[in-house]
Write a structure and sequence with these properties.
Layout: E1 2-10, H1 13-42, H2 50-59, H3 75-97, E2 118-123, E3 127-129, E4 134-137, E5 141-146, E6 157-162, E7 168-175, E8 189-194, E9 198-202, E10 207-209, H4 213-216, H5 218-229, H6 236-270, E11 273-277, H7 281-284, H8 290-296, H9 298-312, E12 315-319, E13 345-347, E14 354-356, H10 357-373, H11 380-384, E15 410-413
Parallel strand pairs: 8-11, 11-12, 12-15
Antiparallel strand pairs: 1-5, 1-7, 2-6, 3-4, 4-5, 6-7, 8-9, 9-10, 13-14
Helix pairs in contact: 1-2, 1-3, 2-3, 5-6, 6-9
Length: 416
């Protein structure tokens, strides 16, 4: 599996100038290649192949006065830009033909010089890591890197990124074997119910608070945004005001990312099997709760759990979104109707038990996940007894025993 390791870069003034030129040249080559293919399609000509498009926008373009300045930056970056466009086209064709999993991919689009996030990709031929812990980039020189952690293996490529806040980053791509950093096996399972009041509620009764990163900075962001709106377009004062807004948004994004990594790592380390309910995040993001749903980043949290479970030898079980986790009594299995969002606790009319809505949902998710894959000797019963309100004393809907999981995996379980 491939992983990305990001580090902060601190180029000097001359290097920033060359990086800006590199970003621009990579963008122009991408746009020229895309325009050539669009023009060929409009004229009814055959699709321009990968080798032909590279000769057209690089070899031949450098000989013209209009594109002679392309020779001032590393040719490896420009070639990589064309290869990335070819990959984008391949993903689109595979998506249309049904060969690519996931959401449908659209056609590649033009890149704008007015985007405040710019990037350029260097493959193994265009960068090296020096003995004095610096990053050497072709035609740029040695750039200072803030190494926050060691790279586990030699990287295959590095992408230099300048974000909207004016910061520079190096994103290394490394190849590691799946399950290559396995953690010691433990006999615990956990169910997770995601929410807005609490970010996540575990079947053990633990509730992870929702930090509400954006809400904390809304006042300051509103003030900075008003200041930005009053600045004259194209002026240096407007650019400085834009940077202040971008830095606040960067702080929100960095804090959120740090929280998601810490929470996901803690859950993976402490549990052998993690059961989580899939949610229609896109659908919820179009509701009246759109702002809150976008802020919590459930999709990113689920992807982190999935990647870390495969990397550390854990099992992740995904329960279908139509499973009625909030409507079932974890003690007797009685199913009620749909509950309003303001109902946080309820009593089961069948067995009389009093339940916390979120904890009961997490227990039901855990029980359904363990039942669906059949883990012999599961500790679900102990998990049910972990919270006084929902202490029902037994496993709900036990499933048939199947062989023990031999390899870490991700399971998608659709509710019957």
């Amino acid at each position: 599996m491939k992983l990305r390791y990001n580090y902060r870069l601190y180029p000097d003034t001359a290097q920033r100038r060359i990086l800006a030129k590199t970003f621009g040249c990579a963008r122009v080559v991408w746009n020229d290649a895309l325009a050539a293919r669009k023009a060929a399609r409009k004229a009814g000509s055959p699709y321009i192949g990968d080798a032909a498009i590279q000769r057209l926008v690089l070899t031949q373009a450098k000989k013209t006065p209009e594109r002679a300045w392309l020779a001032e930056v590393s040719s490896v970056v420009l070639q990589q830009s064309v290869r990335d466009l070819n990959t984008a086209y391949k993903n689109f064709f595979d998506s249309v033909a049904g060969r690519r999993k996931g959401p449908k991919m659209g056609l590649p689009t033009f890149k704008s010089r007015h985007d405040h996030r710019q990037s350029a990709r260097f493959n193994a031929n265009a960068f090296t890591l020096t003995n004095d812990r610096r990053l050497y980039l072709a035609k740029i020189g040695e750039v200072e890197v803030r190494w926050s952690r060691e790279l586990p293996t030699a990287p295959s490529s590095v992408t230099v990124i300048k974000d909207a806040a004016g910061r520079y980053f190096a994103s290394f791509v490394i190849e590691v074997p799946e399950g290559g950093q396995q953690l010691p096996e433990i006999g615990t399972e956990v169910g997770i119910d995601l929410g807005l009041t609490h970010y996540a509620v575990l079947s053990t009764g633990e509730k992870i608070a929702n930090p509400k990163w954006l809400r904390r900075r809304e006042k300051k962001l509103a003030r900075l945004q008003r200041e930005l709106s009053r600045k004259q377009k194209g002026s240096k004062n407007r650019e400085r005001a834009r940077l202040r807004v971008a830095r606040q948004h960067a702080k929100v994004a960095d804090t959120r990312r740090d929280f998601l990594h810490q929470a996901s790592t803690s859950i993976i380390r402490e549990n052998q099997t993690v059961c989580i309910e899939t949610l229609s995040v896109r659908g919820l993001a179009r509701s009246r709760l759109a702002k809150a749903v976008h802020e919590v980043s459930w999709g990113a949290f689920t992807r982190l759990l999935e990647g870390k479970s495969a990397r550390h030898g854990r099992a992740l079980v995904k329960i279908g979104r139509f499973f009625p986790s909030s409507q079932l009594c974890p003690c007797c299995g009685w199913k009620g109707g749909k509950l309003a969002l303001d109902v946080r606790e309820w009593d089961c009319p069948s067995c009389g038990e009093h339940h916390d809505r979120d904890i009961a949902a997490a227990i039901n998710i855990l029980t359904e996940g363990v039942r669906s894959i059949g883990i012999p000797g599961s500790t679900v019963a102990a998990g049910l007894a972990g919270h006084g309100i929902n202490d029902c004393g037994g496993q709900v809907r036990p499933g048939e025993a199947t062989p023990t999981l031999a390899q870490p995996a991700t399971y998608n379980v659709q509710a019957a």
